[in-house]
Specification:
Elements: E1 11-12, E2 19-20, E3 23-26, E4 45-48, E5 55-58
Antiparallel strand pairs: 1-2, 3-4, 4-5
């Protein structure tokens, strides 16, 4: 029912140095600033390492 979404590309994590397919999670931090101007620079999704749970990048 709640399936985890993985990215297609395999990248190396800069923290645990393993080649992994990162998890794709919604960036909830950008939607919590009510009344502020959204510039579009903030990305909507984070790429997270499934091994060490560190944020690898954005998408």
């Amino acid at each position: 029912m709640f399936k985890k979404k993985y990215d297609d590309k395999e990248v190396e994590c800069r923290f645990c140095h393993q080649k992994v397919k990162p998890l794709i999670k919604l960036n909830r931090a950008k939607s919590e600033f009510y009344g502020s101007i959204y510039t579009g620079k903030d990305k909507a999704y984070w790429l997270i390492c499934p091994e060490c749970k560190a944020i690898i990048g954005t998408k």
